[in-house]
Specification:
This protein is mainly α. It is built from seven helices and five strands. The strands form two sheets. It has a three-stranded antiparallel β-sheet.
């Protein structure tokens, strides 16, 4: 029947071998693109108070530390991370206002920069690595609208550099994969195509 005889290797089906070879060739082709996992800010809360008990200076330090780790990061996601660090399950309008104010004050103090709702450290406006969101915990990081435009642009440019002559469709698909998205959701496609 189907069982291979002892001592005889099984033959792989030609179509499967070809698909595996194509996947290996694609992986090799894009191996030169700087990539890494998206690192979510996680640290012990300091001081040991509730989030809504922190003063403005402490809130500014908190959001600045989060952005240092996750730069560039969408403001909503930075606020969510602050809530996660302080074990807040539900963001109230008061907490949202406090954190929005802390982000704005950090920008005004020159500690952060805000570009279209994405926060980064001053002078760090360029992206030099594509971060995969494949294994992130925060569901917000899997929202295409929370992908920093600079990172999407870097992914597209990097793919175009190594895949000279490739189609625009291939660039979108490979950029999506590098960013940690396996699906080709229409809103993801829109976000990526907007940066082409």
């Amino acid at each position: 029947g189907d069982a291979a005889s002892p001592g005889k290797p099984r033959k792989a089906k030609p179509g499967i071998e070809r698909e595996a070879a194509d996947a290996d060739a694609a992986a090799d082709r894009f191996a030169g693109i700087p990539t890494g996992p998206y690192v979510e800010a996680k640290f012990k809360k300091v001081p040991r108070k509730d989030l809504d008990e922190l003063d403005n200076f402490q809130l500014i330090e908190l959001v600045t530390k989060i952005v240092e780790i996750e730069t560039p990061v969408h403001g909503e996601e930075a606020m969510r991370r602050a809530a996660d660090i302080y074990k807040v399950e539900r963001m109230t309008s008061k907490l949202t206002r406090l954190l929005e104010s802390a982000l704005a004050d950090a920008v005004n103090a020159g500690k952060l920069e805000n570009g279209l709702g994405f926060y980064s450290l001053p002078g760090v406006s360029t992206v030099d690595v594509v971060r995969s969101r494949a294994d992130v915990e925060s569901p917000g990081l899997r929202k295409p609208e929370y992908l920093p435009p600079a990172e999407v642009q870097f992914a597209l440019e990097s793919v175009a550099r190594v895949a000279i002559g490739g189609s625009k469709e291939d660039a979108v698909i490979e950029s999506s994969r590098l960013l940690g998205f396996a699906s080709k959701r229409s809103n993801l496609r829109e976000v990526i195509e907007r940066e082409r």
